[in-house]
Amino acid sequence: MPIGMSKLDAVNACLQAISEYRVTALDPQGTNGTSIQADAERVVDEATRYHCSMGWPCNTRKSIPIVITAQGAVNIASNTYGLPAATLRVKGAGISQHRAITLRGSQLYDANAGTTSFAVGTIFLDVAELLAFEDCEPILKEQISAYACVIFSRRRVGSQLTDAFLSQEVSVTDALNPRAGTFFDKPIFTAPSGGKE
C-alpha cells in the first residue's frame, strides 16, 4: 500500500473539484480511455511530470558524473552517460555548477557557450527524473493532486470562483512543501497578501 495518497485518491480529488462522484477504480484502459476518470488521470500524470521537472529531493540525483570521451554532442537518450531514462531537467553541479547546462531536446546544451558540443572531460549534473505518482513523497503527492484539481477544473468547468478556492489550496500546499535540495528555493505559487504584516 502506498504511503500517502494513491493515484486513485488524486483522480477522485479532481472529480470532486468539479462536483462529480468518486470512482472506485481507475479506468481499465488507463489514460487511453474516454471516461471522465481517464481524463482526470491524464491530468494527474501531466501534473506529476510538471512537478517532477522542478527537481525535488525524492526525484533528484545529485552530482552525477558525465564522462565525455570524444568531443561532440551529448545525447542523453542514448543511455551512454548514466543519466536516468526519464530525465526531465539538468543543471550543473559540483565543479560544473558555474556552467549553465540544460536540455535542448534530448541533448545537453551549454548555454554559456551556446552549443550542444562538449569537450572531452567530466561534467557533473544534478538531474531531475520523472517518477510515477505513487513513487513521489507524500507531501509532493498532495501538491500534485491540488495542482491537478485546478487544471482539471479549469478545463472542465472554467468557474472563476472554484478556481480561486482551488488555487488557494495549491498555495498552502506549496508553501508547506520543503524546498531544500530542489531546483527552486522559493515557493512557485504564492497567494496574494492582504493587509499589513
If you had to describe this structure to a student in words, what would you say it looks like?
The protein is of the alpha+beta class. The chain is elongated. The chain has 4 helices and 7 strands; from the N terminus they run H-H-E-E-E-E-E-E-E-H-H. Helix 1 crosses helix 2, helix 2 (36-52) crosses helix 3 and helix 3 (138-156) packs antiparallel against helix 4 (160-176). Strand 4 and strand 5 (107-110) form a beta hairpin. It starts with 6 loop residues before the first helix and ends in a 21-residue tail after the last helix. The strands form 3 sheets. It has a 3-stranded antiparallel sheet with strand order 1-7-3, with no helix packed on it. It has a two-stranded antiparallel ribbon with strand order 2-6. Strands 4-5 form a two-stranded antiparallel ribbon. It folds into 2 domains: 7-53 and 133-176, no CATH class; 57-129, no CATH class. Residues 187-197 have low confidence and may be disordered. It has helices at 7-17, 36-52, 138-156, 160-176; strands at 60-68, 72-73, 87-92, 101-104, 107-110, 117-118, 121-129.
